[in-house]
Design brief:
18 helices; 9% strand; Hypothetical protein af1432; Rossmann fold
């Protein structure tokens, strides 16, 4: 069987890597072998090796044409040059056709690699096209490279680590969030108290499960909205009001308990670059609700109220949302109204009033 070597930092593995590997496996009729590096020659890495491996395993576990080889991790060297890896696989698979898969950016820099000519003699170098890159035709010709064309997905590992991009398998994002990896989660931890962060993670998970059960096109949006929904909660109340008055002046008259949702809607855009209007709306009205809410906003409103760490048995309400999010939202809304009235809370602010009137009357 053809063997396709695919090395890299995979810090973390993302959709660009997976799409590239699957396309190569199909076009070259072979098995793509991910070979994670201990330390990248070209980039700094920021996640422990064990975590990188766990994420990689999660990303490929259901894809029979993809596998992992830990040669570079187990070599005892901090830096493994590609020539060493190629020689290892040439010895390991003496009777198989070997390919070495790289991106077009690496193809353009291939002449700088250690013993580049020997690598090209030992196997077939193949490169994957990438948006915005012009091929170095001299390198392509000199090293007899073969071109693979596929989906033009531009993925930034840096933006993924900063939680500004979510172009990764769902399970990889869940792992990053659960283990507080990379700059984005460090930033979120600095904003939210431990209790608030735990609540936000639980809302994210609950919202994702509800969205998936209701066959939403992209349930990951629900996870992201849930993760960020309370981002404005732990900043000083005076700052919450300041941000609300500046960016949402039409809601400056709403009671102060709700300022955090408007402050949060601003912060997710400014700090994390969120542009998706469904996610922004979900953060904006997760506390008060509003009339004519989109489905994602309804899911986040409900998940915020019924996630399992809230301290009461919410399993029936969660199941109602999974069965039918539109009808389940009304059930959760009524339960929340009854709870607020039992605690003699004021429910007459205009947003909550409109929400109850729209969906319960």
């Amino acid at each position: 069987m053809n063997k396709i070597i695919f090395g890299g930092a995979f810090d973390p593995v993302h959709n660009g890597h997976i799409n590239m590997a699957l396309k190569a496996a199909k076009e070259l009729d072979g098995e793509v072998i991910f070979v994670p590096a201990r330390i990248s020659v070209w980039k700094d890495v920021s996640a422990p090796i064990e975590d990188k491996m766990n994420m990689l395993k999660l990303a490929i576990e259901d894809k029979k044409e993809l596998s992992i080889d830990e040669f570079e991790l187990n070599s005892g060297k901090d830096v493994n040059y590609s020539i060493d890896t190629v020689l290892h696989f040439r010895e390991k698979y003496p009777n198989d056709k070997l390919y070495f898969l790289i991106g077009v950016d690496q193809a353009n820099a291939f002449h700088r690699w250690k013993e580049a000519e020997r690598i090209a003699e030992l196997l077939q170098v193949v490169y994957y096209t990438r948006p915005g890159y012009v091929e170095d035709k001299a390198n392509i010709k000199k090293f007899h490279m073969h071109k693979i064309e596929g989906l033009g997905i531009e993925v930034s590992s840096t933006e993924i680590r900063e939680l500004k991009s979510f172009e990764m398998p769902d399970e990889v994002l869940f792992y990053i969030v659960e283990h507080n990896l990379y700059e984005g989660m460090v930033e979120l931890k600095s904003i939210l108290s431990p209790h608030r962060l735990a609540h936000s993670k639980s809302v994210a998970k609950t919202a994702y499960e509800i969205a998936k059960a209701n066959n939403l096109d992209n349930p990951l949006k629900a996870f992201i909205a849930g993760l960020f929904h309370d981002i404005g909660k732990d900043i000083p109340e005076s700052e919450q009001f300041k941000l609300t008055k500046k960016y949402y002046p039409e809601y400056a008259d709403i009671p102060k308990f709700a300022y955090h949702q408007f402050a949060g809607a601003h912060l997710v855009q400014k700090m994390f670059g969120i542009k998706d209007q469904d996610i922004i709306e979900a953060v904006e009205f997760h506390s008060t609700g509003n009339e004519n809410m989109g489905l994602l906003a309804k899911i986040i409103y409900a998940a915020d109220k019924i996630e399992p760490t809230r301290g009461f048995d919410s399993s029936d309400l969660i199941q109602a949302m999974k069965n039918d999010a539109e009808q389940g939202f009304k059930t959760v809304l009524q339960a929340n109204k009854d709870f607020l009235l039992s605690k003699e809370k004021d429910i007459n602010n205009r947003l909550t009033y409109k929400c109850f009137k729209q969906y319960l009357d």
